Structures are given as C-alpha cells and as structure tokens.
Amino acid sequence: MLVFTLGIKAVGKSHVIRELNKPLQNAIREISYGDVMLEIAKEKEGISDREQIAALPPEIQVRIREEASKRIRALADKEKLVFLNTHGFIYTIPHHAYLPGSPDSVSDVLKPDFVFLVEASPKAISERREKDLKAGRKREMNSRKEIEEALFCERIAALHVGMRYACNVKFFDNSLSVEKNAGELQRLAELFKSLKA
C-alpha cells in the first residue's frame, strides 16, 4: 500500500511517521520524494542539496520528479506499507510560483492507495522553521500569509489526488506536541494497521 503523505516544509511529516511507526512495530517504510529527487539531481544536474532543486528550471524539475516516481513505485511494490513523504506543491524560487509536486503525470505512475495530509498552524510551522535554521538546516522563512497560502494549496492537492484515484483522504493537525496528540496518533495507527491487514 502506498500512502501519499503530503504537507508543506516543516509541518512535521517525518516526525508524525516516526511516531505512527512505534505502535505499528516499524511496519512503515518511509520514502522521501525529495531524497530520491536529490539522488537523480546529483546524477543528472550536479546538484548538491535539496534546496537547489527548487532553483532549477521547471521543466528540469518535472523530468527529475517523473524519474523519481518510477524509482519510488518500484520500491513501493516490494513493501506492505509505504509512506511517501512529499509535497502537493513546491514553491519555485526563480518564478515565485507554485509548481505541482504531484502532477497527474507523476501520480499516474505512483497510483497512491491513500492520501494522508499533515497540517499545522502557521505559527507552529514558523517556529519549527526558525528552530531548523538555528540548528543549521536550510529553510526558507515565509510570512504567515505565504504559509496559509501554501497550506491551502496542499489541501487542494490532497483532495485532487483522492478524487483522481478514488482513495481516502485523511487530514491530521500536527500543531500540538506529540504528547498532546498521543490519542489521535494512536487512532491513526489503528487505522493504518487495519489498512495493512
């Protein structure tokens, strides 16, 4: 089963997946679309980090994404529960516009079974990005309005993928700490356990 795990940068997708994996006895295999794209970008474009991908011309980004989708589908075919950590839209630096991160040409190769959208408040996202920057991780800082716009775009992408593949879409608010979200995370784990069975 391939679970599209969507959400904007610093919303906490990887953290949520790690927390879900605990009650699922590490049944989830997380694949980062960005990591697979970076592998390909290194091979084809001499790129050294993920942030540089957003500065490439859109047609090259699309080509890299399409090749990444083939590699990911091949990996997903070997596993029972794969969470694809990705974005519905990517903010492109050269054009200051949104490029679909999961266009139909990519999704048609991946054929997701479930869409899991991780969201958080703009305040929580800003704080996480700031923390990442202080820790030395490359992160762009956006205004509250820009974060709200990106969250809106991500929700549209999640609903579109769900409609196109007639699969369930689950929204998860990751604004709170793991401790405060424990009950909801447990319910989610039970949901994914039932889907995996």
Question: Percent of residues in helical segments?
Answer: 40-55%
Strand segment count: 7
Radius of gyration: 16 Å
| Helical stretch tally | 8
CATH superfamily: P-loop containing nucleotide triphosphate hydrolases
H/E element order:
EHEHHHEEEHEHHEH
Main sheet: strands, sense, barrel: 5 strands, parallel
Stated plainly, the CATH topology is called Rossmann fold
Question: Which structural category fits the helices and strands?
Answer: alpha/beta
How many domains in all? 1
Beta-strand percentage range: 15-25%
Coarse morphology: globular
The CATH architecture = 3-Layer(aba) Sandwich
Low-confidence stretches: none
What is the CATH level 1 assignment? Alpha Beta
The overall pLDDT, averaged over residues, is 89
In short:
The protein has 197 residues and is α/β, with parallel strands linked by helices. It is 52% helix and 17% strand.
How would you characterize the overall build of this protein?
- The N and C termini lie close together (10 Å).
- 34% of the residues are buried.
- The strands form two sheets. Strands 2-3-1-6-7 form a five-stranded parallel β-sheet, sandwiched between helices. A two-stranded antiparallel ribbon has the order 4-5.
- Strand 4 and strand 5 (97-100) form a beta hairpin.
- Helix 1 crosses helix 8 and helix 2 crosses helix 4.
- With 197 residues, it is α/β, with parallel strands linked by helices.
- It has a single domain (2-32, 78-196), classed as P-loop containing nucleotide triphosphate hydrolases (Rossmann fold, 3-Layer(aba) Sandwich).
- The model has no long low-confidence stretch (mean pLDDT 89).
- The chain is 52% helix and 17% strand.
